[in-house]
Write a structure and sequence with these properties.
This is GIY-YIG domain-containing protein. By secondary structure, the chain is α+β, with helices and mostly antiparallel strands. It is built from 5 helices and 3 strands; from the N terminus they run ββααβααα. Helices cover about 45% and strands about 20% of the residues. The protein has a 3-stranded antiparallel β-sheet with strand order 2-1-3, with helices on both faces.
């Protein structure tokens, strides 16, 4: 069974947040770290994974992504801190 991930990534100063969904978190973070695609994450150097959640169902993952994207910055910070108090790069530990 395939997993789906909702994740929040940021830059090294934690000044911007990017919320995304993917079925391959390791590949997606490599893409962010290597700036393979034009857009927000390349422009703002978003390449540090600070939060992720695993889903079995893609519809649920997309729903969670949309919900988080609608939140204010403070609520996103609280979510990140609930699992990653120091805003460490989780991709270093996972991959």
């Amino acid at each position: 069974m395939k997993n789906y991930y909702v994740y929040i990534a940021t830059n090294w100063k934690n000044t911007v947040f990017y919320t995304g969904v993917t079925n391959n978190l390791a590949r997606r973070m490599r893409e962010h770290k290597n700036k393979l695609f034009e857009g927000f994450t390349k422009k703002y150097n978003v390449n540090k994974l600070v939060f992720y959640e695993v889903f079995k169902n893609p519809i649920e993952a997309i729903g969670a992504e949309k919900k988080i994207k609608g939140w204010l910055r403070r609520k996103k910070i609280d979510l990140i801190k609930s699992k990653n108090q120091e805003f460490k790069d989780l991709s270093d530990e996972l991959f």
